[in-house]
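As noted in the main text, all predictions were made from sequence alone. Below is one such record, for Ribosome-recycling factor.
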Amino acid sequence: MSSIPEIKKTAEQKMQQSLEALRANLAKVRTGRANPALLDTVQVEYYGTMVPISQVANLSLLDARTIGVAPWEKGMGAKIEKAIRESDLGVNPASHGDLIRVPIPPMTEERRRELTKVVKAEGEHAKVAIRNVRRDANEHVKRLVKDKLASEDDERRAQEDIQKLTDRMIAEVDKLVASKEADIMAI
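Prediction:
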C-alpha cells in the first residue's frame, strides 16, 4: 500500500502528463503563422514504410508564412510534396529545385473562431483528465484511512494539498488555452 506523499507525487506526475499532452495537442492547432510542427502529423512512404516527414527531410521556417522542406535524398522530393498535398492541412506545397516551399495561407475570421473552439475543447479535456487524477488520489487517501494506515487529519490535509495542486494545474491549462487563443486571433 502506498503512503500519502507517494499518492501526492503520483497525482502530480499524472497531472503534469496531462499538461504535456495538452501542450502537444495545442502545438498541432494551426495559427496564422508557419510552424514546422504543423507537418509532424504528415507521413511519407520511405522504402515501403510510412514515416514522419521529419525523418526524411530537414524542416525550417523560410519566413513567417512559409515552411521549407529539404529532403535528404534526391528521389524523396516528389513523395514528400504529394504527402503534404494529400494531408488534411489544406496547404499547397511547391518545389523549387531541392527545396519544397509550403506556404501557409492566411486564415479567415470564421476559421479562427472554429480553431478557438477546438482549443477550448482541448483545454476542457485536459481539465477533465486532471480532475480524474484528483478523484483517484482522494480515493487512495480514503482507502488508507479506511485501512487505518492514516488518520482523518492526514486525510483532510492530503485532500487540501491535492486540491491546491489541482487548482494550480487547472490555472496552467487556462493560461495555455488563453495564450493559444490569442495566437490564433492575432492577424
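Residues 145 and 152 are 6 Å apart (CA to CA). Residues 4-28+108-185 form a domain with the Topoisomerase I; Chain A, domain 4 fold (CATH 1.10.132.20). These features were considered when defining construct boundaries for the mutagenesis experiments described in Section 2.9.
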